[in-house]
From TrEMBL:
<feature type="compositionally biased region" description="Basic and acidic residues">
    <location>
        <begin position="47"/>
        <end position="68"/>
    </location>
</feature>
<dbReference type="InterPro" id="IPR011545">
    <property type="entry name" value="DEAD/DEAH_box_helicase_dom"/>
</dbReference>
<feature type="region of interest" description="Disordered">
    <location>
        <begin position="1"/>
        <end position="129"/>
    </location>
</feature>
<dbReference type="InterPro" id="IPR014001">
    <property type="entry name" value="Helicase_ATP-bd"/>
</dbReference>
<dbReference type="InterPro" id="IPR001650">
    <property type="entry name" value="Helicase_C-like"/>
</dbReference>
<dbReference type="InterPro" id="IPR027417">
    <property type="entry name" value="P-loop_NTPase"/>
</dbReference>
<keyword id="KW-0067">ATP-binding</keyword>
<dbReference type="Pfam" id="PF00271">
    <property type="entry name" value="Helicase_C"/>
</dbReference>
<dbReference type="GO" id="GO:0006364">
    <property type="term" value="P:rRNA processing"/>
</dbReference>
<keyword id="KW-0378">Hydrolase</keyword>
<dbReference type="GO" id="GO:0005730">
    <property type="term" value="C:nucleolus"/>
</dbReference>
<dbReference type="GO" id="GO:0016787">
    <property type="term" value="F:hydrolase activity"/>
</dbReference>
<feature type="domain" description="Helicase C-terminal">
    <location>
        <begin position="414"/>
        <end position="613"/>
    </location>
</feature>
<comment type="function">
    <text>RNA helicase.</text>
</comment>
<keyword id="KW-0698">rRNA processing</keyword>
<feature type="compositionally biased region" description="Polar residues">
    <location>
        <begin position="94"/>
        <end position="107"/>
    </location>
</feature>
<dbReference type="GO" id="GO:0003723">
    <property type="term" value="F:RNA binding"/>
</dbReference>
Amino acid sequence: MADDGMLLNFELGDAPLTSQVKFKGGRWRDRVKAQRSAKQSHQHNAARPDDSARPAKRPRTDDGDYHKYAKMPRTADAPAPAAPKPPSHAMKTGQISSGLFTSNPTAVTDFDRPPAEEAEPTIPSNAPLSEEAENFQALGLSRRVAQHLAAKLEMKAPTAIQKNTVPQLIKEDSDAFLQAETGSGKTLAYLLPIVHRIMALSLNEDGTPKATKVHRNSGLFAIILAPTRELCKQIAAVLEKVLRCAPWLVCTTVIGGESKKSEKARIRKGVNILIATPGRLADHLDNTKVLNVGTVRWLVLDEGDRMMEMGFEDDIKTIVGKIRADKLLKENPDGVVLDGVLPARRVTVLCSATMKMNVQKLGEISLEDAVHITASKSELEKDAEAGTEAGTEAAFAAPSQLKQSCIIVPAKLRLVTLIALLKSTFSRKGSVMKAIIFISCADSVDFHYELLKDTKPAVELPTPDASPAKPRNPHTDTTVAPAAYVTSPANPTVILHKLHGSLAQPVRSATLNAFSTCKDPAVLITTDISSRGLDVPAVDLVIEYDPAFAVPDHVHRIGRTARAGRSGRAVLFLLPGCEEGYTSILSSATPIAPQLYESTLQKGLASQVNLPSTAPSPETEKQSWTSRAEALQLHVEQRLLATPGFTPDDEDDKPEAKKGKGKTAWSKGGGKAKPKPQQDNPLLVSGRQAFRSHIRAYATHVREERVYFDITQLHLGHMAKAFGLREPPAGIGGGVSRRTHKGGKGEKDGKVGSGKVGGGRRDDEEDDGVGKVDEEAAKRMRMKMKMMMNAASEFNIG
């Protein structure tokens, strides 16, 4: 054969040639085990001539306590050292948790800067005034109302906003714009003058009854609009307490989620003051003929800026137009003269804790020659029309007695830091009774509630009104549960609650009532649905786990604590990097103290963590706080990876096993046994959907603040650890997707949808009667999202 110029040179080395052993017969699992054992034996016995020249490896260390254990090779001079003892939190299967304390971005905040010393104790800015200086009777209220407030409601002195508002609404008939910080008593500021003037139709100035007395059928005198159902119910609860001094007057609510038939029946029986959400009231004005607005003298728009944000502008225009279109009656059908006692014109009162651009637009719709009333100004500005001062954005500070801080924590450590913060919060008995955690979207609320609740067998929760004859409210079965992880010997019982707009109205009302009346330490995990106007007693701590989508929302969130002069604390979670500059645009009466996550972890994880349904081993008492943090993160990841249902073992791996009624646990195809598709852990599915919704919601911050919340700087892999996931799931920007199982493979590469339209919402304060979307609506939504190709657009409201 001719030489073609090719030269083949094979380097075989000095090691002896060994033939590969093939195993035949028996079970396939036994063959795989034998093949693996033979391969490992061959590698162990193979000679390595360059071992003596290689330097010994050192175990990789991180931050002192966390080690990546690596085998150290044998050298010629020294024997191989003993393998280090694995940490007590390592998995029994040999897996080791990923490093939570490595590859994290460095914070740019200077934590070594000493905090500014306070010259004197902070004076509460929203506390009632001194009794010697002011009292309710001096404001012009009747003696009957003032005595009722002092004796029954234990309110002896007004707040600053009440001092400036009550005389104006009693003596004058002009529109008003009320602006005051959260928790300052705006609700009573407009309720007390209305009740006083309606009572004057039945009582003389000395308190003696008149010959003609109004009752529930005497007419509708006032309408109060609020953006959310919870706020409507809270206003009604406050008004009912005030009306106990005038039992002949009746108030009621008309809100979404309730029965229209029962609402019409209450209106037909008669009502004097109506509290409503805009959508439901507009519906009743169109369809309920018994609703007569001819005697209406007051229209109150509470939280007006929020109603505009939620897209109620058209409804408010409709309501204002129909009320103004009706002729103003000077006397009611019973012949009671209304002029001279009630306002001679319809009075509109607009309330807001913040001044935003949309407040100006709402003022143009509803107000005429309005008086601007604030807590700090004693002289009223009658020349300030609606929106004159609201034309520019104005910063509004939180209460001065509210202590604010922010924790700079990397994305991977967010979850364990939250648990550590809650655990340290409830470490002392009586220090904190109620805490609220604000999260961006409803899917994330559901996931964190399921994760933090105890998985032990359900026990009867202690309730303040529990009695043998009264069963527990069934509406709270899925929204109230004992908490795990955050309990302590001082507080062995912590009750967990969740609240968001996707829940049915009876469930929302029952959950909020359970949180308000709970006598044990309680935690409420919620969205922005709870940020407006809600007054829950004894809320000592507010945690913004996800920052608000705008600065005004931040002010309302932290306003759930430090109300009516009480002290309070607010904690904001921020990521290292661009988010650290967010505190520079937050207006606050007190400085926002930055904290590093390490101090929170060290304080919260100083003792062992009470895991759900499992008892910690005695070795955990000797762990450091970093080891406990890693063990806690590993525990959460293992909970999500645990597969429920049937799992075949070595004894049940025959293809012909478990036959019956045409179904087999194993199917034969191509001569190979295929496992039965296994159902995913519901907690894992919830975590993936919560992650997708969180990332989409992150992109919906207002334009001015996106420089601080830049989604391009967000590390998706690190953020996935905050949801207990080993890797980020795919399909984040897919909008709407549906779970499918093809070929028995189930979920592949994380490309799984939730089966929900939109994959979660940012603002879930849905209006009146919006229920589940039917299949046709879901198809239309999917087509719309496919055309828009914008992952964040589904969160934009109004």
